[in-house]
Specification:
This protein has nine helices and 69 strands. It has 1088 residues and is mainly β. The protein starts with 10 loop residues before the first helix and ends in a 7-residue tail after the last helix.
Length: 1088
């Protein structure tokens, strides 16, 4: 026979324990750390116990207070190695004495034997299988008795065929470790899965107040589970070493039920409490997989373990009943019930379910009448398993109500684990924890599981307050937190008189060598302290802050100061005897009114007190702590006396009128705006800290105060932003007295307009700090958002005139290049958007003379564009497919020479050209060009250039007749890029004319040289003759006969000479070019 296979555990057998240990599957890696106020469990100086590495030290914990002289804790380590022969990781329980100076532990020798054997047919057979039995997975104490269990302990059974059953077993240490007995109630002849073979007795355990043991065995009867109970003394009596099956007198246990209850795990958790009203403690058993996996909790009668009442979970798979606890929360003398469901799921803000955990509180209202208290306590840490362990703490804060600890072993940052402390009160448990204890160790290979084991309700250091043990088996630690004594404090603050009259200056303050009279009042404060188990003398730190509400306002001036220090803050140390009341007195005074603006609001005085952190600890190493429910900040207020009647209340009547210099603002413009307002106070009292409050729209900016009118008041304004709202506040007076009427102006710009709003609104209001009627009505000033664009079309002809006959041109029958047509003309059109708004779709049409009665006038060659413009020409654009000239090589347009071209006069047919001079699209056939212009912002342009040739042949046939070629460009803005429609769509036209002007032909006459010489000689000869004649005439002066003839002769000679010069000049002029004479006759021709 081989016995090796007896050690094999089936998955179903170890399932309950596996879920207990490895309930961390699927943990999220991110958590949020709750922030709570630390209360009286001392987290600064805990006692930390450590066990062997990998032993799961801390898996179970409890206090052991056998007598008043010694205090210690007992800690289970279910994977620890022991001295038992041939037993691997059998598990152990450690005894850890408590003192301020040490935290050492040593093993309690419950069982020193290895695996036991029996002789069958002269053969030794192994009966026990203690390796990996998880001894110490459950540890409980009662008085001088300690119960420790190994739920995975297995034995051979009595069958002939070797078989191993995981029945579990427990040991009791009684009489302060003087006696050890084994208690294995599931080790019976009813073996295998159908009986108690997989019982795992001791998976959970507890003691009643009178010392009865209650065990949970969730694997019995196809994992229906069962609860077993027996008195300690009966267990001791029944124990006989060497006997594997023992009958304990008075033992009671639940029976097998219908198969529908298989796999329910009754006994997964157990607790004791009185619920039936018969003064006999009953039992509570968690059934986390019962009732279609909703889970349930059964209250069993303490006499016969019959089910009296069941409570069912609200969510499938939440493991309702994983943990149970009993205590009197509301101090009504009846035991209440708490149930944990650590896998309860909550739907998050994103709609997804997240595992948070929940604890249910049932308040007992009478025998078997438990009321579910709402709201439930729900975890906040995803996959933190809130509610895995629930531990009654006793009255932790000594307020008369018992408190409770709830664990969240995988919550917190780095899965360090959290323990929540909830205080009881008359209506149950408070919704918010009074303290949250955070584990010190981050998760390693497995989480630290801080809080997986909890035990409280025992005063270890005998200071009158219960303490708490927290296990963290993942790091092999257990932490003892002791409770600090709680100080209940009463404080008062008094100001008298409460009204400060600025006119009554009855105190003096010294500034250098000067004494200044000031207005002052009296201030006093008192403190008393009380509580349980407190030292005789308590040291407090007291802080008095004047005008405390101003402390929260940036840049605010404290209006009151202490008379002795001239400071707004007073700090003192106050020593109070336990049970006594201590008072202090001082004076405060009002600063000069010029030093502050706020004369209306109350001057608050705040008293803040706390225990001196530097005070010495008591004999147990603990410092008292203030009750967190005690108000440690007290406020009183004083008022400044105003000129507002007996009630000291001013009631203004504020009126506001607003005018602006424009009603419209344009998209794309800066839109300068001036708002002029009239502010009045028509009430019976002044308006204190009065200001004009202007809320600016997002599109606007503040520019400054209007200063162009001497009648306007020059205000002081501040421009600020609060919660993305920009506002302007302007001082109107402090106070703005009754009867005040002032005019002022404010300048703004509105540059950031959007087409999503058709209006822009400024909201203006007068505000003051008065309690009654403090504001005026809000006056809105609306501006209409308008779309408007100033669009112009400019055009020019290059050259501005075309002169005929053209130079270097000859009539041809076959047109091949563009020069064959005639003189070149370029028209340039520029569409300009002067804004302020944009235009996005504009139609531009150009029409120019093409022909009249078959005679071509202006031949279009090509066009080019600049900017966002796209054009399409009609079929007439270079319809002859002439070769275009891309680089200009033509000489300047000059008058023709005679030998280059001869104009022949010939008879022309009478046609329309005969009596037309202005050739436009209204009287001749035209060619056209269609353009679409894209987005034009303010200041941008689109340019169209059109090159053409004047059809010279047509105009040569009509010599010396002047014509004007007129092109017409029209534009129309079809669309603007705004949701707001424009009031008027821009449109217009531009005419560009090109005159055709004729010059007379040049005649080249060469004057012969001999004629020029002859003319000069004739002139000189005539001049000599005239000189000779004058000489003779002057010689005859002497004779009287000639005297009368001198004057007429001189005149005759002079006239004769002038006539000669004129004739000579005419002769030369006749030889010059007739075209030059023609040009001088044209008034519009520019020449020197």
């Amino acid at each position: 026979m081989g016995f090796g296979r007896f050690c094999v555990k089936t998955p179903r057998m170890v399932a309950p324990l596996a879920r207990s240990l490895f309930c961390i599957i699927g943990l999220l890696l991110t958590f949020s750390q709750p922030v709570c106020e630390a209360f009286n469990l001392d987290v600064e100086n805990p006692t930390v116990y450590s066990g062997p590495k990998g032993s799961y030290f801390g898996y179970a914990v409890d206090f052991y207070l056998a007598d008043s002289a010694s205090a210690s804790v007992v800690i289970g380590a279910p994977k620890a190695d022991t001295r038992q022969v041939n037993v691997a990781q059998g598990g152990s329980v450690f005894y850890c004495p408590w003192s301020l100076s040490q935290s050492d532990c040593h093993t309690i020798e419950f069982d020193i034997e290895g695996d036991r054997t029996v002789s069958l047919n002269d053969t030794e057979h192994q009966v026990d299988f203690k390796s990996h039995q998880w001894f110490g997975a459950t540890v409980r104490s009662h008085g001088d008795t300690i119960l420790a269990c190994a739920p995975l302990y297995s034995w051979r059974t009595e069958k002939d065929i070797p078989h191993s059953d995981a029945t579990g077993t427990c040991y009791l240490s009684v009489h302060n470790f003087t006696k050890f007995v084994e208690y294995a109630p599931c080790r019976t002849e009813i073996s295998e899965a159908s009986g108690q073979g997989y019982c795992q007795g001791g998976f959970s355990a507890d003691f009643t107040t009178d010392g009865k043991v209650v065990l949970g065995g969730p694997g019995s009867y196809f994992w229906q589970g069962q609860v077993i109970s027996a008195a300690t003394e009966d267990i001791i009596k029944a124990y006989y070493p060497g006997y594997f099956m023992q009958s304990v007198e008075g033992q009671i246990q639940t029976k097998q039920v219908k198969a529908e209850h298989d796999d329910s795990y009754q006994g997964y958790s157990v607790a004791a409490g009185e619920f039936s009203g018969d003064q006999v403690e009953d039992f509570v058993a968690g059934v986390p997989k019962g009732l279609m996996l909703y889970g349930s909790v059964s209250i069993l009668n303490g006499t016969d373990l019959k089910t009296m009442i069941n409570y069912t979970g609200e969510q499938m798979g939440s493991y309702f009943g994983y943990a149970v606890a009993t205590t009197d929360i509301n101090s009504d003398g009846m035991t209440d019930l708490l149930v944990g469901a650590p896998m309860f799921m909550v739907r998050g803000s994103d709609g997804r379910l997240e595992e948070m955990g929940r604890v249910y509180v049932y308040l007992q209202r009478g025998p078997l009448h438990l009321e579910l208290r709402l709201p439930h306590l729900t975890g906040t840490e995803a996959f933190g398993r809130f509610g895995s362990t629930i531990a009654p703490l006793g009255d932790l804060n000594q307020d008369g109500f018992n408190d409770v600890a709830v664990s969240c072993p995988f919550g917190g940052e780095d899965r360090q684990g959290l323990v929540y402390i909830y205080n009881g009160y008359s209506e149950g448990l408070r919704e918010k924890p009074s303290q949250v204890i955070t584990g010190q160790w981050a998760a390693g290979t497995i989480p630290a599981s801080f809080g997986f084991a909890l035990r409280g309700a025992k005063d270890l250091d005998l200071n009158g307050y219960p303490d708490l043990i927290v296990g963290a088996f993942g790091v092999n630690k257990a932490v003892l937190y002791r409770s600090r004594p709680i100080v209940n404090t009463s404080a008062s603050l008094t100001i008298y008189p409460t009204m400060i009259n600025p006119e009554e200056k009855n105190c003096m303050v010294t500034s250098g060598n000067t004494s200044i009279p000031v207005s002052c009042v009296n201030l006093s404060f008192c403190i008393s302290a009380d509580g349980k188990h407190l030292p005789g003398i308590l040291d407090f730190q007291v802080e008095l802050q004047l005008d405390s509400h101003k402390h929260k306002q940036k840049g605010a001036v404290k209006r009151a100061l202490f008379l002795d220090s001239q400071q707004p803050l007073l700090q003192r140390s106050v020593r109070v005897r336990h049970g006594e009341r201590v008072c202090n007195h001082t004076k405060i005074y009002l600063r000069d009114e010029k030093d502050f603006r706020d004369k209306l609001s109350s001057i608050y005085v705040a008293l803040n007190f706390s225990l001196d952190p530097k005070a010495a600890a008591d004999s147990r190493g603990l410092r008292p702590i203030l009750n967190y429910q005690t108000t440690n900040v007290i406020e009183q207020k004083a008022q400044i006396l105003l000129d507002c009647g007996e009630d000291n209340i001013c009631v203004p009547d504020l009126k506001l009128a607003v005018h602006g210099d424009r009603k419209e603002v344009y998209l794309g413009d800066d839109n300068s705006l001036t708002l002029t307002f009239n502010a009045k106070n028509e009430g019976e009292g002044g308006a204190y800290e009065a200001e004009l409050y202007v809320v600016l729209p997002p599109e606007a900016d503040y520019s400054g105060i209007a200063r162009n009118n001497e009648s306007l008041t020059q205000l002081t304004c501040s421009y600020e932003t609060e919660n993305q709202t920009r506002y302007l506040s302007c001082d109107l007076g402090n106070p703005m007295k009754s009867g005040t009427s002032l005019w002022a102006g404010l300048r703004f710009t509105v540059p950031r307009l959007k087409d999503t709003h058709k209006t822009v609104q400024f909201d203006l209001q007068i505000r003051s700090k008065n309690e009654n009627n403090s504001h005026s009505e809000v006056v809105p000033y609306k501006l209409e958002v308008v779309v408007q664009a100033d669009v112009i079309l400019q055009g020019v002809s290059r050259p501005d005139k075309v002169f005929f006959p053209p130079a270097n041109w000859k009539v041809t029958k076959n047109y091949g290049v563009e020069q064959d047509v005639g003189p070149a003309v370029e028209h340039i059109y520029e569409l300009v958007n002067n804004g302020p708004s944009q235009i996005s779709h504009t139609l531009l049409e150009l029409r120019c003379p093409l022909s009249v009665q078959g005679h071509s006038l202006l031949y279009p060659l090509e066009f080019s564009t600049e900017g966002l413009i796209n054009c399409t020409a009609d079929k007439n654009m270079n319809h002859l497919r002439l070769k275009l000239q891309h680089t200009s090589t033509e000489p300047p347009i000059l008058a023709l020479k005679a030998h280059d071209h001869r104009v022949e006069r010939r008879d022309a047919h009478r046609n329309q050209l005969t009596h037309l001079t202005n050739l436009s699209c209204s009287n001749v056939e035209c060619w056209s060009l269609q353009c679409k212009v894209g987005l034009l912002e303010k200041g941008t342009t689109a340019i169209l250039k059109v090159r053409s040739r004047v059809w010279a042949e047509t105009f040569i046939e009509r010599a010396y007749k002047h014509y004007v070629l007129e092109c017409l460009a029209r534009y129309s803005v079809e669309k603007m890029p705004y949701a707001i429609l424009p009031k008027h769509s821009p449109s217009g036209f531009k005419k560009v004319v090109t005159p055709v002007v004729w010059n007379k032909p040049d005649i080249e006459n060469t004057v012969p040289l001999w004629i020029i010489i002859l003319a000069i000689l004739a002139g000189l000869l005539l001049l000599a003759l005239l000189i000779y004649v004058l000489y003779k005439v002057s010689a005859a002066v002497k004779q009287r006969f000639w005297i009368k003839l001198i004057g007429p002769v001189h005149i005759f000679i002079l006239l004769t000479y002038l006539t000669f010069l004129k004739i000579l000049s005419f002769f030369f002029c006749s030889l010059t070019s007739s075209s030059d004479l023609y040009r001088t006759a044209l008034p519009w021709r520019k020449h020197n």
